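discrete fold record:
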Amino acid sequence: MTPGIQELMREVERVRDGFRRAVLAGDPEAAVALCTDAVTVVDLPSGIGATGRDAVRGHLAQVAAHLPADLTFARLSRTVDRFRVVDEERVSFTHDRELPWLLPGVAATGGRAETLAISVTTVRQGRLLAVRTLWDHTTLLAGLGLPADAVHPAVVALGDGEGPRGWW
């Protein structure tokens, strides 16, 4: 692998990690500053997300307003290439508030939650193009004592006929 490719891979990681830091700090402006105009952010299987800088800014503000106080991520693995970062993480938190971006329509249970999340972040020309995060809802719901059908996939209208297929 050439030094140029190695540097490109490090840049992809820096963009992804900067985006995550901004989101967790509650700074949607800083997060969106790292994105392309056509950015897409989606959490699956809920289907909650947005496409385009303005819509993503609004979505991230909603996420930031509903982050659990003790949210932690423990990386289990990371794979990086010239365009993507794929992280497998153990996510832990107390379900101390409603999480419309993760568990839409589910009131806070007060229970301790631990689940796996796999995120695929795509970066193009130094800007974040997409973040798709697949949450292990089965484990999450069971750990909170909730029935498997407590969350249903959202119907998301993104305009111009876009939908889940456009997120890949």
Q: What stands out?
A: Residues 86 and 120 are 5 Å apart (CA to CA). The domain at 3-154 is CATH 3.10.450.50 (Nuclear Transport Factor 2; Chain: A,). Confidence is low (pLDDT under 50) at residues 157-168.
